[in-house]
């Protein structure tokens, strides 16, 4: 029974949970060795996961992006998925086999241009009847830049400058069809806006003018998602985003992040409910708490294979560690802090020597092997338990302002979301904290966002 619904009680507003599904791409989440693991590029895999999410009344289906295959020691990193279909193309196809589910694509603002991205997103919004979303990201490395005509990369501050102007320019293009007076054409007896699509943007990053050839999207503008966690990224999200794809998966970290970001909204004239914070999370269900914990441990060991553990350590040590036993102690050599052996992986940026120092201390304190350390260092499942306890955990996060909802990342593709939709979603609906059905046709409706 929903809270506050007891006989005679005054109804208490219940904070509603938002859920999204992430189709895993390049990561160490997918358990490739599981017999249930399917193709990462077959359209049927995308269809299955999207339809499962829609059956569960999720807000949206989310695709990441990869603009270059990552490398390790000068070779393609063979633990990655082999191939990354272009996200907007996949979502355009999915718009024809779903009816209400939001469709969110990651599109890079460093190596694209506003006109073409705005046009593709407007097209997806029209094809889907108002269900498009754009996760705005930037690129930090020259390695990825080698795939593009401009090449190189932008300094971190310049990346956000370009992203802000890129997004602002895209909004000008979407809005270019909304102004102007209707003018009658006596010859045809119809009305038109002669200025429809006319735009001119003059700025430090983009200097473009012409006519935008895609009519205003059904949502007015696609929903904007952002994933930056730096101070500048948080400020960008507070000013521009509708959803934050956060990485804070514990109650304590989640509440701190939630409070910080929401407190930044007022300076931009925005209310707290105009920005949804949705951490990326994983889960494991079991018949009992003990069964779930055992399954979670097995899944973590499958996610971090011996080969994968060594490759991960090599990224921080910056040297070939193939001679070391992954089930033995940490390497006795010091890290090489030069260029390193990994390309295209953001986690190997920063102070690698400090990371190695902390890991040595942790391994010594707890007697961890290389593989055990990597399992510990790369996190664990966010929600583990029976369907009832996982539903309670999800509700607690949202009810206590550690999140507005979650982007769920299953460990199997494409069937990894099935058990949560079948066993946990009905319990959330029973609590009155999650919708029993969609109440509107657009993604903005699902998220409770006003049209721009």
TrEMBL record:
It comes from the Bacteria. FMN binds at residues 106, 160, 230. Its EC number is 1.14.-.-. InterPro entries: Diverse_substr_monoxygenases, Luciferase-like_dom, Luciferase-like_sf, NTA_MOA. Keywords: Flavoprotein, FMN, Monooxygenase, Oxidoreductase. Residues 34-400 form the Luciferase-like domain. One of its GO terms (molecular function) is oxidoreductase activity, acting on paired donors, with incorporation or reduction of molecular oxygen. NCBIfam families: FMN_nitrolo (TIGR03860). Belongs to the NtaA/SnaA/DszA monooxygenase family. This is NtaA/DmoA family FMN-dependent monooxygenase.
């Amino acid at each position: 029974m929903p809270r506050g619904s007891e006989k005679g009680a005054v109804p208490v507003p219940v904070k509603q949970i938002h859920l999204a599904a992430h189709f895993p791409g390049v990561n160490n989440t997918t358990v490739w060795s599981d017999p249930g693991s399917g193709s990462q590029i077959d359209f049927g895999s995308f269809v299955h996961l999207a339809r499962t999410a829609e059956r569960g009344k999720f807000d949206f289906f989310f695709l990441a992006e990869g603009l270059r295959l990552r490398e390790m020691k000068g070779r393609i990193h063979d633990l990655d998925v082999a191939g990354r279909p272009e996200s907007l193309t996949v979502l355009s196809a999915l718009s024809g086999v779903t009816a209400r589910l939001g469709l969110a694509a990651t599109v890079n603002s460093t190596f694209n241009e506003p006109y073409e991205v705005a046009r593709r997103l407007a097209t997806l919004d029209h094809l889907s009847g108002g269900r498009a979303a754009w996760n705005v990201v930037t690129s930090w490395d020259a390695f990825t830049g080698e795939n593009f005509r401009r090449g190189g990369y932008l300094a971190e501050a310049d990346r956000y400058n370009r992203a802000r102007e890129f997004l602002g320019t895209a909004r000008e293009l979407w809005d270019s069809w909304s102004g102007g007076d209707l003018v009658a054409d006596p010859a045809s007896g119809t009305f038109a806006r002669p200025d429809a699509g006319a735009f001119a943007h003059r700025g430090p990053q983009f200097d473009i003018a012409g006519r935008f050839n895609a009519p205003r999207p059904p949502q007015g503008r696609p929903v904007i998602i952002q994933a930056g966690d730096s101070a500048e990224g948080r400020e960008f999200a507070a000013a521009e985003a509708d959803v934050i794809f956060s990485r804070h998966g514990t109650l304590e970290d989640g509440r701190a992040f939630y409070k910080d970001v929401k407190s930044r909204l007022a300076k931009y004239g925005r209310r707290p409910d105009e920005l949804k914070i949705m951490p990326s999370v994983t889960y494991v269900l079991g018949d009992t708490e003990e069964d779930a914990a055992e399954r979670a441990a097995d899944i973590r060991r499958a996610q971090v294979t011996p080969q994968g553990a060594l490759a991960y350590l090599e990224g921080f040590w910056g040297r070939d560690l193939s001679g070391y036993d992954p089930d033995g102690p940490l390497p006795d050599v010091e890290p090489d802090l030069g260029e390193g052996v990994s390309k295209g992986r953001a986690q190997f940026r920063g102070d690698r020597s400090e990371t190695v120092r902390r890991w040595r201390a942790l391994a010594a304190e707890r007697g961890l092997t290389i593989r055990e350390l990597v399992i510990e260092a790369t996190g664990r499942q966010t929600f583990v338990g029976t369907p009832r306890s996982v539903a309670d955990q999800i509700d607690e996060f949202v009810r206590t302002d550690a999140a507005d909802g979650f982007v769920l990342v299953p460990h199997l593709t494409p069937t990894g979301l099935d058990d949560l939709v079948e066993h946990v979603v009905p319990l959330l609906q029973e609590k009155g904290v999650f919708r029993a059905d969609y109440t509107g046709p657009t993604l903005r409706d699902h998220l409770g966002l006003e049209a721009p």
